[in-house]
Amino acid sequence: MLPKELLTDFLAVSLFILVGIVFAVVPLILSSLIVRKSTGVKREETYESGMATIGSAWMQFTAAYYIYALIFLAFDVDVLYLFPVALAYGKYGFRDFIEVFLFVGILSLAIVYAWRKGVFEWHLNE
Question: What is the DSSP-derived secondary structure letter of residue 53?
Answer without folding.
Answer: P
